[in-house]
Amino acid sequence: MKKNGMIALKAGCGIGAACLAGLVITGYEIGWGPFRKLFKGFEDQVRSVEDRYDAKTRQGEIVFYGASNFRLWTEMERDLAPLPVQNHGFGGSTDELLMRCADRILYPYEPRIVVFQTGSNDLVSLSGTEAEKVRACMECKREMFEAFHQRLPQAQFVVMSGLLLPGRKEYGAMTQEINRELRDLCGEHGDFMTFVDASEMTFDGKTYREDLFRRDRIHLNRAGQHLWCDAYIRPALEELISHRYPDGL
């Protein structure tokens, strides 16, 4: 019994260590949560986007621009084929950082469609009451979308709702309020903005879909990525293309 107990204990410690190592690596790579201070910065990720997609030859396509749930979707191009998509996501990004990096990994590509998924990191980085955080977050979003529209006046923006995350339940009510305000904002600018509400994908009002997330309960696993893609993103893009670009991209 003692020998079996020691074996089980060692096995459990090994599994725990492996899980912790995975979380540390993920946190280091994308600047997540308690590992934000270890984050190596955005330069490597931004440069990787520049290296992966040639701005001179890859113009007029669909650019995904947002945080780590885009960044970690490494099979995006394959999952969305034959749509001409580019994954310009970088982990830990906020709306302010998306604006700061746009001169390098957004504007030079002259995308016809930009897909955005932002908000969670913004809320985490803000201080104040919930109402103050929501207000500050939306003010930044309005500024961001206005700036992007001025520089890309012909582009269509697809704004994904903020995902409701089991690992960030404390931000759930704020995320839902921001989603409502994003819906209204897109309605005001329907000539170039489309809102895609995937809120119910991960939360039905009572229970979170834990099975759609990685161990950190913040980032989608492959099942979550497939559902996000097939039930929400691809249909929205195909409908938008059929109305705005009937001859194709």
Could you provide a short overview of the structure?
With 249 residues, this protein is an alpha/beta fold. 53% of the residues lie in helices and 9% in strands. The protein has helices at 2-30, 43-52, 68-71, 76-80, 95-105, 120-125, 130-151, 172-188, 199-202, 222-244; strands spanning 62-66, 85-87, 113-117, 156-160, 193-196.
Topology:
Elements: H1 2-30, H2 43-52, E1 62-66, H3 68-71, H4 76-80, E2 85-87, H5 95-105, E3 113-117, H6 120-125, H7 130-151, E4 156-160, H8 172-188, E5 193-196, H9 199-202, H10 222-244
Account of the protein in words:
The chain has 249 residues and is of the alpha/beta class. It folds into two domains: 1-40, no CATH class; 42-244, Rossmann fold (3-Layer(aba) Sandwich). It contains ten helices and five strands, in the order ααβααβαβααβαβαα. A five-stranded parallel sheet has the order 2-1-3-4-5. Helix 5 (95-105) runs parallel beside helix 7 and helix 7 (130-151) runs parallel beside helix 8. The chain is globular. The protein starts with a helix and ends in a 5-residue tail after the last helix.
